[in-house]
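User: Let's play a game. I give you a shape written as tokens, and you guess the letters that built it. Ready? Here's round one.
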């Protein structure tokens, strides 16, 4: 049973678990599976005097589609803390802010003051790695309700700043791109606004039954199902290895490329920064570590792939079927990195031609990032080129696997060994060096993907330069429909 609260003070709210207050009051709802938000506990009672409900879950099944008689300040289960916007989300938010359709309210609870100039506040905001950075999006026509929320927040000593069409767009975008908590004001005006801003598109939608999300499994944030051109969703570990059998039925095995390793890095990373088109890692002692140079648009494409991979639980990048039709991750479609990976995927059978198989798959098996002199980091990636068939149960079997190791700083590729029941059928004059060289783009990008996966899974702070990184145009060579 959910907890209802509006007619109790902040201290009592924690004690009233599973109790209903006055049912005639449109009460604020706290999902029992979530930790109460400290800011909401603080604001709830004062805002009731302004007839504004504070609701922990705006998508709660009992409230989301009910009639709106008061304003509601709330959060969303599909936007947990540190759920930062992607590039398209930022683009939509900036466009509607500039057009005067929406506004934003910044509340910075760690600022220690109630009146900050926007540029000074932004610098303190970017230095704070906690969840103190709150941004509330709302329909511009609901400014009156936002003013009341701001007034209460100021009363508690929090720094407050309004963002509107007159705000420097780079400053406003920086606040939105780095907000640790993204809330919204729900009301009739917001519901009627045909907005593409994520927080406003979530209004009025209920979580699915027996779920804490409004989306079906396999849907992306925004309600759009995976595109038909997306590669078959799978994680490469289910292909098995030399000692364990595959658990994937052959009919859905995407021949192609699947990269899903998490990198090993002997460094206590505290922060990631993007500056002058490149990334830097900061360790716990504050020392900056330089990463290898790579085009900013390629870094952006690989970062987006990792975010999508984690969200949909799939390592698949590209698959080219027997008819030559290309399926590639939407995060890498029409990018230079995607084109290079797709092209490399077409080459294994040019080297290994005497096997009775029709599918190959290239997977990473390990990535190590190593410290070098001058506070530089380099990586070594290991990967396999596999040739697959199906057994009589339609499960994928690795007939031959070729193992390689790539050292980025030396730009060297070395064949390690082969295994599989048909490895004895490999030609003695097989050009391992040529095959390894042609797989260099995959080996190189595997190193970056593994690092980004590690950083994103550990939720390493990435605030400084995040806005500039989101604005990078990753578009490059067009991905063909057929190869």
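Assistant: Ready! My guess for every position:
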């Amino acid at each position: 049973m959910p907890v209802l609260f509006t007619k109790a003070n902040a201290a009592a709210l924690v004690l009233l678990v599973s109790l209903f207050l006055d049912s005639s009051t449109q009460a604020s709802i706290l999902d029992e599976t979530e930790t109460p938000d400290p800011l909401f506990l603080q604001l709830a009672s004062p805002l009731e005097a302004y007839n504004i409900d504070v609701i922990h879950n705006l998508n709660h099944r009992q409230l989301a589609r009910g009639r709106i008689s008061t304003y509601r300040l709330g959060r969303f289960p599909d936007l947990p803390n540190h759920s930062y916007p992607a590039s398209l989300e930022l683009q939509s938010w900036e466009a509607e802010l500039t057009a005067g359709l929406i506004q934003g309210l910044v509340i910075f609870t760690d600022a220690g003051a109630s009146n900050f100039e926007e540029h000074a506040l932004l610098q303190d905001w970017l230095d704070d790695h906690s969840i103190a950075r709150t941004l509330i999006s709302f329909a511009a026509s609901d400014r009156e309700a936002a003013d009341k929320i701001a007034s209460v927040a100021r009363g508690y000593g929090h720094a407050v700043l309004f963002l509107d069409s007159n705000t420097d767009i780079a400053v406003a975008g920086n606040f939105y791109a780095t907000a640790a908590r993204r809330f919204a004001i729900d009301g009739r005006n917001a519901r009627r606004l045909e907005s593409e801003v994520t927080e406003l598109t979530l209004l009025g939608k209920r979580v699915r039954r027996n779920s804490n999300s409004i989306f079906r499994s396999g849907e992306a944030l925004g309600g759009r199902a995976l595109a038909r051109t997306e590669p078959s969703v799978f994680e490469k570990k289910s292909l098995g290895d030399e000692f364990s059998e595959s658990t994937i039925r052959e009919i859905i095995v995407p021949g192609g490329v699947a990269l899903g390793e998490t990198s090993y890095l002997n460094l206590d990373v505290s922060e990631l920064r993007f500056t002058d088109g490149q990334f830097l890692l900061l360790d716990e002692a504050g020392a900056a570590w330089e990463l290898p140079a790579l085009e900013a648009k390629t870094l952006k494409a690989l970062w987006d792939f990792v975010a999508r991979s984690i969200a949909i639980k799939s390592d698949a990048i590209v698959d080219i079927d027997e008819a030559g039709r290309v399926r590639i991750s939407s995060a890498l479609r029409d990018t230079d990195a995607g084109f290079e990976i797709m092209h490399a995927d077409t080459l294994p059978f040019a080297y290994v031609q005497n096997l009775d198989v029709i599918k190959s798959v290239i997977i990473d098996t390990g990535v190590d990032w190593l410290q070098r002199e001058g506070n530089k980091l380099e990586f070594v990636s290991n990967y396999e080129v596999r040739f697959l068939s199906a057994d009589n149960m339609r499960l994928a079997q690795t007939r031959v696997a070729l193992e390689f190791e790539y050292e980025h700083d030396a730009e060297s590729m070395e064949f390690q060994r082969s295994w599989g029941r048909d490895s004895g059928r490999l030609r003695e004059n097989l050009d391992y060096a040529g095959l390894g060289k042609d797989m260099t783009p995959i080996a190189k990008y595997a190193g970056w993907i593994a690092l980004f996966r590690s950083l994103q899974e550990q939720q390493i702070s990435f605030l400084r330069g995040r806005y500039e990184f989101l604005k990078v145009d990753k578009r490059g060579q067009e991905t063909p429909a057929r190869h």
